[in-house]
Every structure is written in C-alpha cells, then in structure tokens.
Amino acid sequence: MRWIRSACVIALIVATFAVKSSASAETPDVSKSSQLMLVLTDTWDAAQAVMLLFTRDGKGWHKDAEFPAVVGSKGLAWAYDQLPDSDGARTKKEGDRKGPAGILRLRKAMGYEAVPPSGTIFPYEQIQEGMHCVDDQTSTYYNRIVSEMELPGPPKELWKSSEIMKRNDILYKWLMVVDYNVQTPKPGAGSCIFIHVWRTPEKGTAGCTAMEETNVTRLMAWLKSDRNPILVQLPKQEYQKLWKDWGLPSPELLIAH
To answer: Average per-residue pLDDT in the chain?
Structure first.
C-alpha cells in the first residue's frame, strides 16, 4: 500500500505543477521582445502613472520616450494568471476598476477612422457602428469584441452588459486592445482592457490604461509587430523587486534621457 500512496503523491505533485505551468503559459517571454511599454504607478492604489517606451538592441535597453498616463481609478491588481503566491488577495476581477499588473501583449490597434495614424504599421481595424466588447461574465461572448451584424440574435438576448465601441466621445477614437484574459476567457477575471485616450490627466479609468490623444497615436506609430512588443504594468516597488528576474531595464535607465 505504501507504493500506492507514493504514486498518488507523485501524481498530485505532477498535476499541481501542470496547473501552475498552464496558468502562466500565455505570459509573454520578455527575452523575445525588443519593444517595451512600461507603465509604472507610485502605489498599488494610484490611478496616475507614467508610460516609458524602450527598444532593445545588442547593447541592451534604450529609452525612447516618456509621458503621463492613468490606469484604473483604483489602481492595479495582478493579472489572474501571473499572481505571486504571496499576494493572493490582490487579483484583477471584473468591475474592480483596477488595471491588470504583469507582462502583457497587445492584440491590435483600433479606431474610428478608416485608416490608422500616419506611420502606423501595427495591425489595425476600424471601429464600426454596432460593435460591442462584452463584459457580462455569464455570456458566451465574454471579453470578445463583436459586431451586431454577425450575431445570431439581438444583443439583449446574448448578454446583459457590454462596452459600446463607437462612442459619443473620443475615448476610443484610437486604442490598442490588450491581450488580457482573451485566449480562453476566465469568467470574472476582467474584460475589455485597452490603451485609449484619457478623459483628463486626473481621472482614472474602469481598468484600462489611458493617455493624451497625441501620445496614443504616437504609440501606435511606434509599435512594430516583428519586435514582439510587450506591455508591463507594475507599481514602482514591485518593479524594483522584479526587473532583474524579468529581464527589464534597470531602474537607472528609467530616468535616463
């Protein structure tokens, strides 16, 4: 019977390892990226942030630009699949008005105009009337951007709530779709995370990252798909702990001109 118990323990260890591995399987590999968008806040609860753009060559990371940004009105929380074991209470959830912290990708750029800002070569899609990003975690369309024209029935029968993508303001005039909880959406882990135009420098978002319109268009033109750009969002104290292990720019480079 002892060998049976030992086999069960080994199987449990293997299964546990498999779960942890699959949870982080979609986390981008920083070593394969040569473009970095770094968003830093002063604390976990701060809405004000700074975005720094870095490129990497054979000599390391080099800062290209820096400008103000805002994140969720209640700050940041760990992306559900990148949560450190010691910080179990601070996880991104639907409706918490926090942006996801961790290492993320961008899926595509979008905007109201038929063509993207001058110089943009990153994948771009025009936002059409009738487009929604579904934030109802009980819907099969959760965290998907869909068009009413492609639906099998009226939207009110398919979800209880959604983000209208073609708005009456400029918030989504230009945006980038963040690849968070998109591949296999986990209900309640957060949805419709974008980089978009801010309302004001003082006002946080529902969980997105936002900035002045000129900086959004600047970012869209800067992005190059073949450089595997990544987005990293962290409070400054977490960055100090993690930058070396994650292969990010040293803290000294953050203030370099």
So the answer is: 89
